[in-house]
Amino acid sequence: MELMTKSPLQIARSSYQPKMPAALKGSVVLKEGAATQSVADQEDIKKLFPNTYGMPLITFENGNAKEYPVVGVGVILSGGQAPGGHNVISGLYDGLKALNPKNKLYGFKNGPSGLVDHDYVELTDTIIDEYRNTGGFDIIGSGRTKLEEEEQYEKGAEICKKLGINAIVIIGGDDSNTNACVLAEYYVQKKHGIQVIGCPKTIDGDLKNEMIETSFGFDTACKVYSELIGNIQRDANSAKKYWHFIRLMGRSASHIALECALQSQPNICIISEEVEAKNQTLNDVVEEIVQVIVQRADTGLNFGTVLIPEGLIEFIPAMKKLISELNDLLAHNDDFNALQTEDEKRQYVKGLLSPDSCQVYRSLPKGIARQLTLDRDPHGNVQVSLIETEKLLIEMVAKRLAMLKAEGKYKGKFASINHFFGYEGRCAIPSNFDADYTYSLGYTASILISEGKTGYMSSVRNLTAPADEWIAGGVPITMMMNMERRHGKMKPVIQKALVRLDGAPFKYFEKYRKSWADDKLSYIYPGPIQYYGPTEVCDQPSKTLLLEQGK
Question: Of the residues 245, 411, 470, 512, which has the fewest C-beta atoms closer than 10 A?
Answer without folding.
Answer: 411
